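User: Thanks for the earlier help. One more: DNA polymerase-3 subunit beta. Can you show the sequence and predicted structure together?

Assistant: Of course, both are below.
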Amino acid sequence: MDLTATTQHLASAAADLVRLVPGKLIDPVLSGVLLTADAHGVVLGANDRERTARVSRGALVHTEGRVLVPAKPLAETLRALTQPQVRLVVEGSRLAIRADGARFALPLLDVDLHPGAPESAVGGSTVSGSQFAAALATVATTASRDEALPIFTGVRLRSEGDRLVLRATDRYRMAIASVPWSADTEIDLMVPAALLAEVGKQVAHIDRVTLQATENHLALAWSDTVVTTAVLDGSFLSETKLALSDADTHIEADADTLTAATRRVALYSDPRGVVQLEAGDTELRLRATDHQAGEAEEPVKATITGGRTSPSFQSRYLLDALRPFAGTRVRLAIQPGMRATVLTAVDPGEVDLRYILMPMLPPKV
């Protein structure tokens, strides 16, 4: 194999691939990147037997070929190069990376042991890349990171008419977002949140993303990238198991103002980071107290209707809940007692988002 390519394009492809499929450190073959060069350019592929990725880039191919090399060293080397062009050429048992007099060489792994990379997805349902990314920025980060509870580490993707609904929870909070989509079939799958979080970052400026589902796998395709992943069992994940219709207090406030006040007051919270929201007539008063840190309170102008429920929340979860509503007004529907509070946008856009937050016991005075 022998090819010349634009360094920046090849480096971005390798970096995207490594983030989509980090690889199995215990198996060098599954931690490798499969490079396939032909008349159409070069394809970088990865497969760890649970997820796969394939990224294509244009290249001037002098000699067609197929090799397997360690993925991360290739990505890091390409990222570090400042020369505009780079040449990849097989030299004996190594792949040489040449750029204006510099030479780096990676060992060739056994390409015949690699399971291969996915072909491009054909057909499937489509969603706006920017809207999908906006939904995933909130929903995917709400899933649990505790691998001991894998059923909470995914995002449930479910088609509901002309909307694709995304749901995730870590048992203390839940985020639900829906986006318009063009569906050719119904889907209902639980997809690892870590992968979708990275997909969201890569498709933020992409026009369309294609989703193609089977019983045990989901394929996502955009531009020159195709990703597949095994799915989890997520049929249990639904907000219908939560009582969300008994709110007795409704609060509307500027999300940025409320976020800033929460950060300041949380500096004086107890070790759990608990902040109390006390609803008044025309303002929402945030309070926090700790025997060592002291105490703080700050009012935020708000439109308040209904009762005077005063829930307490862990500040970091409240800040996470407010983050997707930045730059807008947010509505809090507060239920009495230790029941969930629902945050929504006062004027929702194409991405319809609901964030369900469980309260904490108030701090002991």
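User: Great, one quick takeaway?

Assistant: The chain has a mean pLDDT of 92.
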